[in-house]
Design a protein that fits this description.
There is one protein chain. The protein is of the alpha/beta class. It has 4 helices and 8 strands; from the N terminus they run E-H-E-E-E-E-H-E-H-E-H-E. Helix 3 links the parallel strand 6 and strand 7. Helix 3 packs parallel to helix 4. It is globular.
């Protein structure tokens, strides 16, 4: 079954959002055009509690994008984003959500971040997505969304480790690029791990 996995196409990652990804809105028409080509559509959604440890606002004297240690793992601090049951956590306007068959939320544990749609950043807990996809008989995933150098990358790497074949639709992804070249390095890392990079 041809499966499209959409990563975090949410308001807070769009221009004007709390953690805007440059050009994030530009992928929406591309994704909408892809959807009819697939039989199964799955989406991930950042779904943080307000007290999440990855938010700079929850650490006195810290600023967004500073590195810290969070429960034994390196963590980049972020602006408050995608808080549960807020408008910023909703899927972006214009995204055709009617065909989404299943949504997997992530990042609910305040003590650990979850870039990947499959696991938290320490691989301490699963979102259940990998198990669910395998029950559906899925062996290959096409992936699009934001951000190329964070949630997309870690989802792709985990998908490969879980044994899925992965096609990354690079034209339907956008990255944060905190450091110049981060997106290019992420694409190279995903390709080296076995992902097929499609334009």
């Amino acid at each position: 079954m041809k499966t499209l996995l959409l990563i975090d196409i949410q308001n807070d990652f769009m221009p004007g959002g709390a953690l805007a990804v440059s050009g994030g809105d530009k992928i929406i028409p591309l994704v909408n055009a892809l959807i009819p080509q697939f039989e199964l559509i799955v989406a991930t959604q950042d779904w943080h509690p307000a007290e999440h440890g990855s938010f700079a606002a929850n650490h006195a004297g810290k600023s967004p994008f500073e590195p810290i240690d969070l429960d034994g793992l390196p963590q980049t601090l972020w602006p408050v984003h995608c808080v549960q049951n807020t408008g910023g956590a909703l899927f972006a306007p214009g995204l055709d959500t009617r065909r989404i068959d299943r949504v997997f939320t992530k990042g609910m544990n305040p003590r650990i971040d979850s870039y990947s749609g499959f696991y938290d950043n320490g691989h301490r807990a699963s979102t259940g997505m990998g198990e669910w996809l395998k029950v559906q008989g899925i062996i290959e995933l096409s992936i699009a969304g934001v951000a190329t150098d964070y949630c997309v990358k870690f989802t792709v790497l985990d998908a490969l480790k879980e044994g899925f074949r992965v096609n990354l639709i690079a034209s339907a992804c956008r990255g944060v690029n905190l450091q110049l070249g981060d997106v290019d390095r992420a694409l190279a890392e995903m390709q080296a791990a076995g992902a097929v990079i499609q334009s």
